Amino acid sequence: MRTGPSPGRDPRGQPLPGPDESFDVPGCVVTPRAETPQVGGSQQQERDTVIVGWTVYAPADHPGMPLRTTDKARIRGVACDITGEPGDWGRNPFTGIRGVVQFAADRVTG
After folding, report:
1. Which of 60, 59, 56, 38 is nearest to 47 (CA)?
2. Are 80 and 105 in contact (CB under 8 A)?
3. Which residues of the chain have pLDDT under 70?
């Protein structure tokens, strides 16, 4: 989900939301990102796995690339923030094949 530039400000001086410029990115691979329990902590003792978000591998040649840290992603129906800077794997030096763009996505809270 991407929002375009703000068209101005509301009466309280807050920026108005820009137009919706969202796009779909087919062909992504999505994997859960788990939190590592503290060694010796109760989560490790109980063997709890806590999923804290997703790691997404997206095709780098999509017209919506590069992703912005202000973009949001809808993953499995859940709105997520893109956290951190998306990483572009570039080209494989042996084959010349274009790599993916990797990014972390966390559920939007609040």
Report:
1. 38
2. yes
3. 1, 35-51, 108-110
Q: What is the pTM of this model?
A: 0.70
Structure token digits, residue 68: 């912005």
Bridge-based pairing of strands 50-59 and 100-107 is: antiparallel
- d(CA 80, CA 57) in angstroms, rounded, equals 15
